[in-house]
Amino acid sequence: MLNKEKVKLGIAPIAWTNDDMPDLGKENTFEQCVSEMALAGFTGSEVGNKYPKDTDVLKKALELRGMEICNQWFSCFLITKPFEEVEKEFRSQLEYLRTMGAKVIGASEQSHSVQGMTDTPVFGHKYVMNDQEWETFCNGMNRLGKIAKEEYGIALTFHHHMGTVVQDEAEVDRMMENTDPEYVSLLFDTGHFAYCGVDPLKMVKKYADRIKHVHLKDIRREMVDKVKAENLSFLDGVRMGTFTVPGDGCIDFDPIFKVLEETGYEGYMLVEAEQDPAKANPLEYAIKARKFIAEKTGL
């Protein structure tokens, strides 16, 4: 069983309102979203597109529900923009997160990403970095991680993601080998590894000592196979239901939880399973996820 004193549970607002496709869940308000998160038994949330930018307003809304912000997505463009430009936006977000009491920021390199392109198949069309770009990227991550840790007290975790330059096992390996463990950690996402054909159990075993944030999502294998066979985009897949909450798809979470327990994982485990809320009621799926995690981990 995982340690309740060291591991907290959160859920992402993307199941209620989708940042990349605002029509999904456009009817769901911020207040409904955080109320249902709390009702389902979660204490942490990441930041969504409907969340108040005013930290006082956001703090009050969350405190009323016994919740807190635990992380926020940050889009890096280290290989296509000047570092100073990325740094400026990064610092702004770190300031916001520090004010909210968050301990983690989740960065994803979005240069040349196809994850948000509705007309580009997610399989077979991702950009591959050359050696110079790899050097620029890894050096940039180290610099950002140093700023986050030393100036803001926040850990930089890298979010590998379908359709981006760091998606596959070899790419995650290369990034981890060429970044400083003191400044760059891994945001371990079960769903994105499984989606691209990488065994999430293998990856959690390999990088357990560098994981500082966990995204729990499951995949519907038949839907992922359909995306691949029909050359569909990542967002097409989301609409169809490629993702679901842990326990509702094909990933075996038991051994993954066991590794996290045995290696003494500390931090948030966050359910992040973007679906069409009109097809998958967010509260219903949040409760389903919460029950599954309680049953498997004792949390």
Automatic annotation (TrEMBL):
Keyword terms of this UniProt record: Cobalt, Lyase, Manganese
Stored Gene3D superfamilies: Divalent-metal-dependent TIM barrel enzymes
Enzyme class: lyase
Cofactor: Co(2+); Mn(2+); glutathione
Domain Xylose isomerase-like TIM barrel: 38-294
EC number of the protein: 4.2.1.44
GO molecular function: manganese ion binding; myo-inosose-2 dehydratase activity
Reaction catalysis annotation: scyllo-inosose = 3D-3,5/4-trihydroxycyclohexane-1,2-dione + H2O
Gene Ontology biological-process entries: inositol catabolic process
Keyword Ribonucleoprotein tagged: no
Pfam families recorded: AP_endonuc_2 (PF01261)
Pathway where this protein functions: Polyol metabolism; myo-inositol degradation into acetyl-CoA; acetyl-CoA from myo-inositol: step 2/7
Family: Belongs to the IolE/MocC family.
NCBIfam families in the record: myo_inos_iolE
Name of the featured protein: Inosose dehydratase
Source species: Schaedlerella arabinosiphila
